[in-house]
Every structure is written in C-alpha cells, then in structure tokens.
From TrEMBL:
<dbReference type="InterPro" id="IPR029039">
    <property type="entry name" value="Flavoprotein-like_sf"/>
</dbReference>
<dbReference type="InterPro" id="IPR001226">
    <property type="entry name" value="Flavodoxin_CS"/>
</dbReference>
<dbReference type="Pfam" id="PF12724">
    <property type="entry name" value="Flavodoxin_5"/>
</dbReference>
<protein>
    <submittedName>
        <fullName>Altronate dehydratase</fullName>
    </submittedName>
</protein>
<dbReference type="GO" id="GO:0009055">
    <property type="term" value="F:electron transfer activity"/>
</dbReference>
<feature type="domain" description="Flavodoxin">
    <location>
        <begin position="17"/>
        <end position="153"/>
    </location>
</feature>
<dbReference type="InterPro" id="IPR026816">
    <property type="entry name" value="Flavodoxin_dom"/>
</dbReference>
<dbReference type="GO" id="GO:0010181">
    <property type="term" value="F:FMN binding"/>
</dbReference>
Length: 201
C-alpha cells in the first residue's frame, strides 16, 4: 500500500545562484550584499555566489534560480564569455527565474548602452522580459590597469567631452579626471532587484 504524507504549508526551499564577473571588486561586493539580502527574505532561499570563471555546469544544474552580474568594461561584461557555451544553456529553461545586473561608473545613466551589452553578452532570448538593473561602482586611477587607464584618458575622454548634452554620470566621470577617483557604490540600490527576485522565489 502506498502512503503519502502531506505537510500543510510545506514548501521546497529555492536555491539561488549568483554568478558574477568583477573587475575591481565592486560587482563582487554587490553580489555579496545581494546574497545577504535574499537570505533575509521571508522565503529564506538558499543562496550561493560564484565567480563566472569558476562556475561549473554541475553546479548550475543544482540551482532553481539565477542572478547573473557583470562589470562593464568598454561595453563588454566581465565573465560573460565564460558562461556562453556551457552555463547559459542550462539557465535558459529556467529563464523565468533569472535576473541580471551590471556595475559601471555611470550605472542607469548609461541604461541604453548597458541594456544592449546585457542582451549581447547573455543572448536576447535569455534576457528579454527579465529584470535588468544597472548599478554604480567607482574608479581609482591609481588602481586600474594601464590598458584601462590609457583607454579612459584617450578615446573615452574624447568621447565624453564631445557629448553636447552630458548627463550627470558623464559630468561626474569628467570630474573624476581631475580628482583621480570617485566611488558611488550603494547597497540601497539593490532593493528593487531584491523585490523583483522575491517574486519568483
């Protein structure tokens, strides 16, 4: 005789994997904060973080929901190439339980460009209709790589200065050339993302 046991109110715990690509540490910091904020939700999901360069197909298979994050580096999202062949196909069937965020100096001030970078990096099929947020990091010219510094002080600066209607993010970037550094990382900006993720836990 087959016996079935039903526990009223019982529910499987959702497992969330945050996969991040971080250039100077800002994206990793946001990933850590996000994991803490998600664990504090009433749903109490199980959350892990892993660098995009280290996540394995076996690890991805074991999770129910995903957050994919990448720092912007000249229109390219850190860690994205490592995910394309083996990880994104595993996530695709769980698209409805997936969210994305980028980290850059200008954040939402560069929404159009960053939206395109997200779609290009993680495929339009996976990203369309999903929560996508653009958070702000910072910059310290004494700590960035020589290649990055050269690009910022050359073509990037010329492009910024040629903009006839600079937004606040561009103005702050231009000011940073004088001060040498600036930081806009803000844990509070994760709140809307946490609320969106909570809907599919």
């Amino acid at each position: 005789m087959k016996c079935e046991i039903y526990l009223e109110g019982s529910q499987m715990t959702t497992r969330v994997l945050i996969i991040f690509g971080s250039t100077y540490g800002y994206t990793e910091q946001y990933a850590t904060w996000l994991a803490e904020d998600l664990r504090a939700l009433p749903q109490a999901p199980e959350v892990e973080t892993v660098p995009a360069s280290k996540v394995t197909p076996e690890q991805a298979e074991a999770f129910d929901a995903f957050v994919i994050a990448g720092s912007d580096y000249g229109g390219f999202l850190n860690g994205a190439p490592a995910l394309r062949k083996k990880i994104l196909p595993i996530i695709a069937p769980k698209k409805n339980r997936t969210a994305f965020f980028t980290v850059s100096f200008t954040g939402e001030y560069s929404k159009k460009l960053l939206d395109k970078a997200v779609a290009k990096s993680y495929t339009p099929e996976l990203t369309e209709g999903r929560p996508v947020y653009h958070l702000r990091g910072g910059i310290d010219f004494d700590k960035i790589s020589l290649a990055h510094k050269t690009a910022l002080k050359g073509p990037v600066r010329a492009w910024l200065m040629a903009n006839p209607n600079p937004n606040e993010g561009i103005k702050q970037m231009l000011e940073c050339y004088k001060t040498g550094k600036a930081e806009y990382i803000d844990r509070e900006t994760l709140k809307p993302l946490v609320e969106d993720i909570a809907k599919f836990l």
